[in-house]
Specification:
- 35% of the residues lie in helices and 19% in strands.
- It is built from 8 helices and 12 strands.
- Strand 10, helix 8 and strand 11 form a beta-alpha-beta unit.
- It is flat, with a radius of gyration of 20 Å.
């Protein structure tokens, strides 16, 4: 059996930054280090950090808190900073690209636009964005939901940064049809975009795909979805143990791809 690797593998910029921030704090002797929620969507990596002493923040007022790569709503961020006078140290590991979308959403919401976010409502990145969107926002999972949105004079359309680039034109077209003057910003990050492009290329060269990444990772799930839509047997694995129940010997060439948090 031959194995071919996708052109892009390894952590994206935002994930690498969050991991490095956590490791730097954990390297300080005697430092209590916490993350605000799951730092990234990669359980094996989180297990490694936990073994080195990282814990999920639960209201402690001493030590260091690393803000997750997905970012936080402003009110949660303020609540953290309010504890700095008590000795808590804050290290913001929000992905710079996510932060850019947060600032855009906040600016346009302040200007009176209804903010439309294409993404998953309960994803931590989207939760963070909604905190910047004021009171007038909607989350859609696809173009079919645009017709159900309320009336608005001005709208902004953005995307969760890990969405499927192939589906973006349909979402954009649906919003543009209803609001011809809408402000539309494609905020899909280049890291998942590149990985989506690479897995399409890889799919032309292999008989099956193995996609590595956390089961809660949106960008990893989308890579697997692409493989399946292209008609290839596609297996999602989080760790080596997941391979035990998969018989890859029936395939002459297997492609290996991975999410941006792997």
């Amino acid at each position: 059996m031959k194995i071919k690797l996708a052109g892009s593998l390894g952590y994206c910029l935002g994930v690498r930054r969050a991991m490095n921030t956590a490791f730097e704090r954990l390297s300080i002797r005697g430092e209590k280090v916490y993350s605000h929620g799951e730092l990234i969507h990669n359980p094996p990596a989180l297990d490694l950090l936990e073994n080195k002493g990282l814990k999920v923040w639960a209201g402690e007022t001493e030590g260091s808190v690393v803000i997750r790569a997905h970012g936080l709503p402003p009110e949660e961020l303020k609540a953290l900073h309010d504890l700095e006078d008590k000795g808590l140290k804050i290290f913001d590991a929000t992905c710079p690209r996510v932060r850019r979308v947060q600032k855009l959403v906040a600016k346009e919401a302040e200007a009176g636009r209804m903010v439309i976010i294409w993404g998953k409502r309960d994803h931590p990145e989207v939760v963070g964005l909604l905190g910047h969107a004021g009171e007038n926002w909607r989350v859609i999972s696809g173009p079919a939901e645009v017709a159900e949105l309320p009336e608005a004079e001005k709208v902004l359309l953005v995307s969760q940064t890990t969405q499927d680039l192939d589906k973006w034109p349909d979402v954009e077209a649906a919003v543009r049809l209803r609001w011809p003057e809408a402000l539309i910003k494609n905020t899909i990050c280049e890291a998942p975009e590149i990985r989506q492009r690479d897995i399409r290329q890889l799919a032309r060269e292999v008989d099956a795909l193995v996609v590595i990444g956390g089961k809660t990772s949106g960008n990893t799930a989308r890579l697997a979805d692409i493989g399946r839509r292209l008609g290839l047997p596609t297996f999602s694995v989080e760790s080596i143990a997941d391979l035990n129940n998969i018989d890859l010997s029936v395939y002459s060439t297997v492609g290996v791809a991975a999410g941006a948090s792997t």
